[in-house]
Amino acid sequence: MTPAEYGALLADAEEIRGSSHLQLAQQMLEGLVDPDTQHGQRGAWLLRPFHESLLWYDARKESANRAEYTVRKVNIRGSGITLARMLVDPPDPESADLGRAAVAAIKEALTAASPLAEISSKLEDALPEGQPYNTAPQTQDDERGAWDRGADPRLRGFARKLCRHAAGVMLQRGASPAARLWQLRTVLALDLAIHILKTSWTVTDTPVADRYLLLSFGDSPRALDTVRQRSEESYRRARIRLGEATVQTLARRMAELDEPSTVWSSQFEKRSALADVGDENSIANQLSRLPKNATRDDYLRIARAAVEIASYSRAAEDGFRVLLESVGSLVGTGQYRFLTAGPDLLAAMVGALSAGMPVSSRDFFSAIRQEWGFVTNQESSAGTSLANQLDGAGLERNARRAEVLMSDAGLAVGLSDRTTMVGERAAGLVS
Fold first, then answer.
1. 190 and 166 part of one domain
2. For residues 414 and 158, is the Cβ–Cβ distance under 8 A?
3. Is 50 part of any domain?
4. Helix locations, 258-342, DSSP H
5. Pair (327, 214) in one structural domain
6. What percent of the chain has pLDDT over 90?
7. How many whole angstroms separate alpha carbon 339 and alpha carbon 331?
8. Which of 215, 227, 281, 415 has CA atoms 20 to 30 A from the CA of 50?
9. How many folded domains does the chain comprise?
10. Which of 171, 204, 233 corresponds to the end of one domain?
11. What range does the domain containing 97 cover?
């Protein structure tokens, strides 16, 4: 067999003498390069990029018209840079120690000894020097802007929570570097999604009783599962609040800019239908015709029309949805989507709270209610509108199924029929 023939067999994932499971390896590598393949290949999760030598996995084309691949402009990179700034140099000085500890642990995990790192270094040694892919790139304006946003004083509370959760995940005991990095990725996405939602609750003055997300752990048919139905409703209401927050923020900004010298067509993107001065019903022309004593309702009406035309709310609503989907919290399709937590998400939440572990399952459900707004059992539903929508027995059955799921995943230990301890491994009490 010639080297070319041998290479062709390897490339096609054919079984050859001295090798086995090449097809499985091919599937897992596809999961690395294209995360979408994990929808039909759960095994692809096993080889997610848990090491700096595999950080190229998110390479993609800068645009459809260009052939070159880059790791520069990846999905949510701007937010990623902002989150990195919060860990490296948080706006809250009290969080600095936790942030530094988390960053040091992240670096250690990313550079840990690994067979994959050996393979990567051999491949990189064969690359010619002085090429764009092995030369430090110049920082771009949008990247500098994303970094600066991480120091915004308005994000102090978010940064404090982010540093605490990242440190909890990365400094926990009983988890491998790969497991901790996967949990870190999950908890960062979760924290960002919940921050977006809580901001919308504040902007829209959402009643305290409606500030929650209900996690459903049932396996009954939907028509019989009232907890799932209420979970669907909690997600639907969250999307509505996000859209309304966008409208109110835009209306407030319009009112702030409304001066006699304001040229409204210049306040929107060029070539946008909102700025079309030739259309008497364009948003710019509607704003120009407003009287000096325009009311808040006037601005809200125009802002609502602008959102419908330009889809301003899409970034918040779609971003929230995608983040929840990425951590496995949002499942189902269409109007029947509901919220849950699988083993990966539960492990990330346990890791984020590891500094206070172990705790009873009751205290754990209380903690995730406080940290992320998740309602799981009857006790955590206190003070919410769910008290009038669900009976306590249904919520307690929901909590019991969550306990069983955590026990099966090795995240909890049932001490009796009524007591389940969560996080003993994260606290280093068991191996």
1. no
2. no
3. no
4. 283-288, 296-310, 314-326
5. yes
6. 49
7. 6
8. 215
9. 2
10. 171
11. 75-171
